[in-house]
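Consider the record:
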Amino acid sequence: MIDSHCHLADEVFAPDLDAVVGRARAAGLERALVILSAGDTKESAQAVRVETLWPDVRFAIGVHPHQAHQFADAPARAADVVRAQCAGTARARAIGEIGLDYHYDFSPREIQLEVFRAQVRLARELRQPVVIHTRDADEDTISILKEDGGGDVTGVLHCFTGGPSLARAGLDLGFYISLAGIITFPKAAELRETVRAVPVDRLLTETDSPFLAPVPHRGTRNEPAHVARVAEALGVLHGLSGEDLGRRAAANFHTLFRP
């Protein structure tokens, strides 16, 4: 199994990082994709610890829409920061997470759009996949992926919670659909119906830890070991065992991120 999206470099894991990594490996995870916020020196320092404890991890680096306002004076500079950090991170395999968030609007939408565009163009230039965060912004997200990706950029719609139209738009662009612990929540029936229609060869599993712990861990700090619960839930939807679904999702991960 693979956790295709986690935040192990978050300071919340600092006190017991070795134990968290140990539990992940004991649960059968071969690796994880750790998300780094571009320019965050504390996360970069923790990433070194993560890599030392778990050499098989890989990294994605990007400017999240919540932080887009930091580049309000020069949105294109976001891509320069990401480019530099990727160049100095040997195990970097993707640009992300990047995208649009019109739910919280922590950054002005016009700045989110420009920062997102700049990073999609960078991914196209570097021939790297993207890790997409989109919330209440489906139309603009897909439009930018089409226009600035130019058909050359692929990636993953991370922590997918959208409906059939977003899933189909993503699949049509060659994207993968990644599910987190939300898929196990009792009130996620509509999401489960949408995911039934996603081909198994386009699914990824993730935790988005430390957030969104799956049932029966809901309400606690999430961690990569819990991705097994996501695999089990997806397996039920597709008539597979959790182990088989996990293996197939891992193969998809390798195809997308070329680790």
Notes: The domain at 2-257 is CATH 3.20.20.140 (TIM Barrel).
